[in-house]
Amino acid sequence: MLQANARTMHGERASRTMSLAATFGRRIASGRLACGEALPTEKELQTQYGVSRTVVREAVRHLVAKGLVSVGPKVGTRVRERIEWNMLDPDVMGWHLTAAIRRPFIESLYEMRLINEPQAARLACDRISPEQAARLQAAMAGMRENPRGSPELIAADLAFHRVILEATGNPMLVSLGAMIERSLSISFSLSWRQNPQEETLRQHGRVMDAILAGDREAAELFMRRLIESAFNDVILALYADDGTRGDDAGEAGDTDAGNRERDHGARSAP
Q: What would the DSSP string read from start to end of the chain?
């Protein structure tokens, strides 16, 4: 009985700790707490949120571990410079995506994907195993079989990209994919709202077909086009209601390189 009570108390404390850490994590990610700004004192946090000193200290330790704040004598707990944040931490990514100001983070996320995933698709052409090829096809089938924007479809989409990263045989790329998966899940749910399902399925299908055919150039090209399209869809989903999408929302796909890729795609589309 005593052990059960202790586990319950520990669970409640952990929940309060994470809730408090998330509250300030979102404020920091959104810019409401600026770099160099001090958080409330320990006593102020206890009073304001009705939590114990232990909860406050553990919440601050979480923020310190994620690189968001530093603690020092006489200066208290202060927000660190953005460059020092652990941007690949799943919680930090999630706080950015739920913050009021999201576009810079979305742009950084998709820029990182454009650097890595087209090359991963190219490598997968030579390295994908029969088992991975079967999983890639199963993920594609999962996207076709489930309703637009459903959790099952999002899971299948994540699996599709995960298999391609695994097929590179590069453990660092696989780890990178795992770290950003939470952010991808949220961004996928946004992009699927905008693009017609058949068009998105066609884009994924072209990537898969190129990889299975061992066509490196096409695999790299179609993955790049898929990510550029998804970026534009996410921006549209975030800003369609307030009219702030603007011309710059389409910049990811409007470069000369993007135009050349579209021309190539028109010639080599199945």
A: -HHHHHHHHHHHHHHHHHHHHHHHHHHHHHTSS-TTPBPPPHHHHHHHHT--HHHHHHHHHHHHHTTSEEEETTTEEEEPPGGGS-TTSHHHHHHHHTSS--HHHHHHHHHHHHHHHHHHHHHHHHH--HHHHHHHHHHHHHHHHS-TT-HHHHHHHHHHHHHHHHHTT-HHHHHHHHHTHHHHHHHHHHHHHHS-HHHHHHHHHHHHHHHHHT-HHHHHHHHHHHHHHHHHHHHHHHHTTTT--TGGGGGGG-SHHHHHHHHHHHHH--
Mean pLDDT for the chain overall: 84
> Which pLDDT band, with edges at 50, 70 and 90, does 102 fall under?
confident
Query: Tokens 């399925």 — which residue?
Result: 201
- Write out pLDDT tens, residues 157-184: 999 999 999 999 999 999 988 888 877 8
pTM: 0.73
Q: Which residue has the tokens 């309703």?
A: 147
Task: For the chain, list the domains and their CATH numbers.
Answer: 2-82 (1.10.10.10), 102-268 (1.20.120.530)
State both tokens at 193. 């709202």
**For residue 31, pLDDT beyond 70:** yes
User: What's the pLDDT at 258?
Assistant: 40
